[in-house]
Specification:
The complex is a heterotrimer of chains A (about 325), B (about 325) and C (about 350). Chain A is α/β, with parallel strands linked by helices and about 325 residues long. Chain A has 12 helices and 11 strands. Chain A has one domain (about 5-90, about 175-315): P-loop containing nucleotide triphosphate hydrolases (Rossmann fold), CATH 3.40.50.300. In chain A, the strands form 2 sheets. Chain A has a 7-stranded mixed sheet with strand order 6-7-8-3-9-10-11, sandwiched between helices. Chain A has a 4-stranded antiparallel sheet with strand order 2-1-4-5. The chains are: A alpha/beta (about 325), B mainly alpha (about 325), C mainly alpha (about 350). The interface of A and C includes residues 14, 17, 21, 23 and 278 of A.
């Protein structure tokens, strides 16, 4: 059975003084029906840009320069713009990180949800409003009828994000892309939104591409995890497998450095060094500059994709080897 | 909102009083009443005539309130200006208030159409240019704007008078007629010139506003919803851009009254701008004082109107 | 300074300018950010920068002057009159009255010219070569823009930075002052000031400076308010660094790009204002505005006398366009809001 979303060799570049910089550099993954795939990485790893590329929302002057994105077998990157607009919001919805700025401040939130509906279906405004009302209730907004007429600044961050979710789901899309949906929210609100997403996902059986840097969220929501570093994937695995038995040194480093999992009284492990900027990417594995297990060929040869079993994909020369002490 | 309005009003009053003070310092201390009298009567006038002239115009009292708090020029200045008792012109003894009232009509007949036409022409152009941002059209548009802005208004006036008035003979070079049927012919040329000289700066400003609003996050959300570029421009960008645009427009309202000095003088329109120019040429300090005061007053009112208008376009201000 | 002849003052200023320019270029070369910005601006606006350099050179030619060295028999030169390099280039070019460009005969009357065919842009009503007058206007224009900014920018910084940094009553006072001045119609205030101060280059520049500092004052005050809250400024204060030092080492350098942007963008506005002032009769002698004002009536003659106003208008347009163009590029490169990041 083909995956719902098939991304192959996606490359997105931004022009710069030293030539085009591939912020997303040959990324391939599948998103299956009804599953939650978490795309994990630090800032600048290219995870958000990968999602934006799939939606063809890459901000200028960047552009998708290579690769393919197939939604249910249909190639999205070739679609004429008018067709792509039907996909956007209709079959693929997206919610963003900053609910504060993502809603039009001078338009009532109900109107904005109605707009989302009417862009894709020929419904009357009254019907759309009724649908919006239901949606608001579905996402847990209290007093939905009054809230429909509210302006964004009158709502709290959590409520705004619920509005965003309602708006994105109003057309019952096949895929929901959530780009760091809780990063800008308070911790308590975070938990609420996460549980809301989990509920909705189960009820609607939607596929979610969840972009995050927070492994705690990954643990709560994800079925499968894809880890990105400096524009490329380094490891893809089922959640359980990844969290209990990470193969890539970067993933291992990430898991070790979670405070909650650390041993009290001992220094918190960290990944030494900083993420290299695109101009400084080595020819081989991009993590090699900081990798505690690196061997000589790491800096020169980019590791091929290996499949050590159980649906796992790893890009590493050494994988399970013990630390060599050569890195960092 | 009410407390906010009162505070702004209070501050505006304070500023108006401050303006009056500055005016007083400028007009009375930098140029003493003696000098004003001599400018009107001539440098060689005998001191007796000077004193008489000063007495006639109320300049024969001490400047500051040190001796007598209510019999000095400062006190006079404040009371007269605040009660709109503008007195007589230093140049020809005509009542200033009458002149002002006569001049308001012609000034408005020029500046009001100019304001509206300016908006009607500039906003669609800027929308177009912003819509095609980063393309050839955008770059051309910006270049033309910079070009248009770099030409002195004087040259526009002279050029238009020469080309359209003299060579093509479409409209009269200057003049004014209060008859509403004849008026448009006389206003045509100054309005054309006003549009040409202002459009460069206007389009650039509006374009910047539209571009800034287009870069906001909620535009990305709208795109993610599947909205087309045209809809984004008209429904999302324009509505938010109205806030800074409105500020600019409301701020321009006071200047509707004071008229455009250049346009009125060159095109012979007997408005408030003309009065000002005549006052300058004739060293008519009392009229000039009054014109500056009125201008300031209107500006302060304009600021207030701007603050209030925010409440209409920006719901964030409304529900404070 | 009192006993110094005006032309010596001018020569000294030219010297100071050249030394200052040299020092500035050395300083820019040492700091990478400024060097890269300068290179970026040069890339974008080569033609405009060359044009401005041309105007500058002409102005410099007209600023270096000395007495004497005039050959015998030249008319119109007083014994102790100082003449600039530019003056000397056009030394003996006077005619009686109007003549068309490259003409051999006078415009009215048809008498033969003293220097037939040598007036590239014709002559004006007093017989002066129009090209010479147009070139002389460059110095006046640059003086207006430069001298005025020299007055208004430091004034704005003084009030703006101290008001923003120290706050309190002083800030309230400054803000009130700004609001009051800003609400007075600029042109009218300008006119009133000039009428009060008297005519002449310096008073015009002073008046322009005094009416023009408000905008930048507001801007620098707002920026200082933001800068004051920055962590390293707070840290400096906690360490006991004197306030004055903080202002000079931390606040002012961060305003440098705004100073550059403001200077260039207001330059053209100032020159254009002076043109209007000239038309009102209270401008600076020898400016293009004055030429335009004086030549207006010539257009209504038949046949038209166009070269006077054409030359002044073109010269004015050329400088303003170039400055506006470069100003745009400078703002694009230096303004942190519009500058592109590398990602």
């Amino acid at each position: 059975m083909t995956a719902l979303l098939e991304v192959r060799g996606l490359r997105t570049a931004f022009p710069s003084a030293s030539g085009p910089l591939p912020v997303v550099d040959g990324v391939s993954f599948d998103l299956n029906r009804g599953e939650v795939l978490a795309l994990v990485g630090e800032s600048g790893s290219g995870k958000s840009m990968s999602a934006l590329s799939a939606m063809r929302l890459v901000p200028k002057p960047g552009r998708v320069v290579a690769g393919s994105v197939k939604l249910d077998g249909e190639e999205l990157l070739d679609l004429p713009v008018t067709e792509m607009r039907k996909v956007r919001g209709g079959r693929m919805g997206m919610i963003f990180q900053e609910p504060m700025t993502c809603l039009n401040p001078v338009v009532r939130v109900g109107t904005q949800v109605i707009e989302a509906i009417q862009l894709h279906e020929p419904v009357s405004t009254a019907d759309a409003r009724a649908r919006a009302l239901e949606l608001f209730a579905e996402v847990g907004i209290p007093d939905p009828d009054q809230r429909l007429d509210a302006y964004p600044h009158q709502l709290s961050g959590g409520l705004k994000q619920r509005v965003m979710i309602a708006m994105a789901l109003s057309t019952r899309p096949e895929i929901l892309i959530a780009d760091e949906p809780t990063t800008a929210l308070d911790v308590t609100v975070q938990a609420q939104i996460l549980s809301l997403l989990r509920d909705l996902q189960q009820r609607l059986d939607a596929a979610i591409l969840l972009i995050t840097h927070d492994l705690g969220i990954v643990n709560e929501l994800a079925d499968r995890v894809a880890v990105m570093y400096a524009g490329r994937l380094v490891e893809v695995a089922d959640r359980e497998a990844l969290l209990s038995d990470p193969r890539h040194p970067y993933t291992q480093g990430l898991l070790r450095s979670i405070p909650a999992l650390a041993t009290p009284g001992e220094p918190l492990p960290e990944i030494a060094g900083v993420v290299p900027s695109p101009e400084q990417w080595p020819a081989g594995c991009r993590f090699s500059t900081r990798c505690p297990k690196r061997i000589e060929r790491c800096a020169a040869d980019f590791p091929e994709e290996t499949a050590p079993g159980e649906g796992r994909r790893v890009w590493c020369h050494v994988q399970d080897a013990p630390a060599t002490g050569e890195g960092a | 909102m009410g407390a906010y309005v009162l505070r702004r009003l209070g501050y505006g009053v304070g500023v108006a009083l401050g303006v009056l003070f500055l005016l007083f310092v400028l007009f009375f201390t930098v140029t003493a009443p003696d000098d004003i009298a001599r400018k009107a009567l001539g440098e060689k006038a005998p001191q007796v005539a000077v004193e008489q002239w000063k007495a006639n115009h109320g300049y024969d009292r001490p400047l500051w309130p040190w001796q007598d708090w209510d019999d000095n020029l400062l006190f006079d200045h404040y009371t007269k200006m605040l009660t709109f008792d503008f007195g007589l012109s230093d140049a020809d003894d005509a009542p200033i208030m009458d002149r002002i009232q006569a001049g308001m009509g012609p000034s408005l007949s020029l500046t009001v159409p100019l304001l509206f036409l300016g908006l009607i022409v500039a906003i669609p152009i800027s929308l177009l240019v912003a819509f095609f941002r980063e393309t050839y059209i955008d770059r051309m548009g910006v270049f033309i704007c910079v070009l248009a802005m770099s030409v002195s208004t004087l040259l526009y006036i002279i050029g238009a008078q020469f080309l359209i008035g003299k060579i093509l003979r479409w409209y009269p070079i200057s003049g004014f007629d209060a008859d509403p049927l004849l008026l448009p012919r006389f206003l045509a040329l100054p309005i054309i010139v006003g549009l040409m000289s202002g459009i460069g700066g206007d389009v650039r400003f509006y374009r910047t506003v539209f571009l800034e609003e287009s870069a906001r996050d909620f535009v990305r959300t709208a795109r993610a919803k599947g909205a087309g570029e045209a809809r984004i421009m008209s429904h999302h960008v324009l509505r938010n851009a109205l806030i800074p645009i409105l500020t600019r427009v409301v701020l321009a309202i006071p200047f509707l009254f004071t008229g455009s000095i250049l346009l009125e003088a060159f095109f012979g329109i007997p408005g408030l701008g003309s009065i000002t120019v005549d006052a300058i040429r004739a060293n008519d300090f009392s009229t000039l004082r009054t014109m500056v005061f009125i201008g300031s007053l209107l500006f302060v009112l304009g600021q207030l109107a701007t603050d209030l208008s925010y409440g209409f376009v920006d719901p964030r201000v409304r529900f404070e | 300074m009192m006993g110094l002849a005006p032309h010596m003052l001018s020569n000294l200023v030219v010297l100071a300018l050249l030394v200052g320019l040299l020092g500035l270029s050395r300083w820019v070369r040492r700091r990478r950010i400024w060097l890269e910005s300068a290179q970026a601006i040069w890339q974008r606006r080569r033609l405009a920068i060359v044009v401005i350099a041309a105007y500058l050179s002409i102005a410099l030619l007209d600023s270096v002057a000395w007495v004497g060295g005039v050959p015998e028999g030249v008319a119109d030169v007083l014994p102790n009159q100082s003449l600039s390099v530019l003056d000397r280039l056009f030394l003996d070019t006077r005619e009686a009255s109007y003549s068309a460009p490259f003409a051999d005969f006078e415009w009215t009357g048809g008498e033969a010219l003293r220097h037939p065919g040598s007036h590239v842009l014709g002559t004006d009503i007093l017989g002066r070569d129009v090209l010479y007058l147009a070139l002389k206007g460059a110095r006046v224009a640059l003086l207006i823009g430069g001298l005025t900014s020299l007055i208004s920018i430091p004034l704005a910084l003084l009030f703006g930075v101290t008001a923003g940094y120290f706050g309190g009553r002083f800030d309230d006072f400054v803000f009130f002052l700004i609001s009051t001045l800003a609400s007075m119609p600029g042109l009218l205030l300008l006119i009133a000031l000039i009428m009060a101060l008297g005519k002449g280059t310096f008073s015009v520049c002073l008046a322009l400076g005094v009416t023009g500092w408000v905008g930048f004052c507001r801007l620098s005050r707002a920026e200082t308010l933001k800068l004051r809250e920055l962590d390293y400024v707070e840290a400096a204060r906690a360490l006991g660094v004197s306030e004055v030092r903080i202002i000079f080492r931390h606040v002012l350098p961060n305003l440098a790009h705004l100073i550059v942007i403001t200077f260039v963008l207001t330059f053209s506005a100032l020159v254009l204002s002076e043109a209007v002032l000239s038309w009102l009769g209270i401008g600076v002698d020898g400016s293009w505005g004055q030429m335009i004002d004086g030549a207006r009536n010539e257009l209504s003659r038949d046949p038209i006398i166009w070269w006077n106003i054409g030359a002044a208008g073109a010269a004015l347009f050329g400088l303003i366009l170039a400055v506006n163009s470069v100003g745009d590029a400078i703002r694009d490169v230096l303004d942190p809001r519009t500058a592109r990041t590398s990602e």
